[in-house]
Design brief:
Layout: E1 2-7, E2 9-10, E3 21-25, E4 33-38, H1 42-46, E5 56-60, H2 66-69, H3 72-79, E6 89-94, H4 97-107, E7 116-121, E8 125-129, E9 132-138, E10 146-151, H5 161-166, H6 174-180, E11 183-186, E12 189-192, E13 205-208, H7 217-222, E14 227-231, H8 239-244, H9 250-260, E15 264-268, E16 270-271, H10 276-289, E17 294-296, E18 302-304
Parallel strand pairs: 2-16, 4-5, 5-6, 6-7, 13-14, 14-15, 15-17
Antiparallel strand pairs: 1-3, 1-18, 3-4, 8-9, 9-10, 10-13, 11-12
Bound molecules: zinc ion (2 copies).
Residues 10-11, 20, 65, 67-68, 211, 269 line the site of one zinc ion.
Amino acid sequence: MEIIFFGTSAGLPTKDRHTQSIALKLEPYATDIWLFDVGEATQHQILHHSIKLGKVSHIFITHMHGDHVYGLPGVLTSRSFQGGEGKPLTIVGPKGIKAYVEASLSFTHVHLNYPIHIIEIDDQLDLTIDQFEVQARPLNHGVPCYGYRVQAPSTPGTLDVAKLKAIGMEPGPLYQQVKNHDTFEFEGVAYDAHHFKAPEKQGPIVAIFGDTKPCDSELTLAQNADVMVHEATYIDGDKQLANDYHHSHIDDVLQLITHANVQHSLLTHLSNRYTKEDVKAVEQQLKASHTQSFQFVQDFDAYHF
Ligand SMILES: [Zn+2]
Ligand SMILES: [Zn+2]
């Protein structure tokens, strides 16, 4: 899979960074794209990339602050003209997302040429979408705000060809049966398929957070994640002050990475007061003194996993 950042700034855009916008490419598990938050310049940024809005099947909103949703009406409208015609779109977000979408489309006289389905989260949500397990859990940001945990589907284990040949089964269409089922029959004998393949491979886990100060559900969302996307609004200065504003300090995030055993973290939503040079310098310093695997991201950064 791949995560692409179209906006990485906090609150306001800067000359180098737009407000929050993240795409999750589901390949090789599915061909759809999911968006997480749709900051103001999302549709402009996507024009610089091979992603097409028509491929976006789901949009997940963490919370209703402008730096996370001001791009939504434009994305919805343009999707009609960029391959989205007739293709359903699901939007998941906090209470208020439905009224916001309906009002912005209605006041601007937009008639979408595809159906939209809006799900408002009430406290928390568990969804299965095409074998992907999605969990939304509440964060602590002063307004209703959610983090999402996405678990990709498991894939069948590799076949043990030598063992299959030993029972007389040569490579062919039957191998698919062994691969995809618990049992199979060959020349009148029933077999347990698990004896002929490696265990199922669990799909990767991605945790994508909205703005938050440290809270209990962070651990639930991030536990053993392969990749975590987290805000690090404050990368220096006073931790207490960051938390008073319902945001995370870099020390909070580094602690979470360790407690939740996260493999790699992509840190975004850095305060717009930091320049590129500030960020580079802090990153180098932190990497010299910490063992956690992480990086600060900029617009158009992409991460494969
Ligand atoms: Zn924000
Ligand atoms: Zn916010």
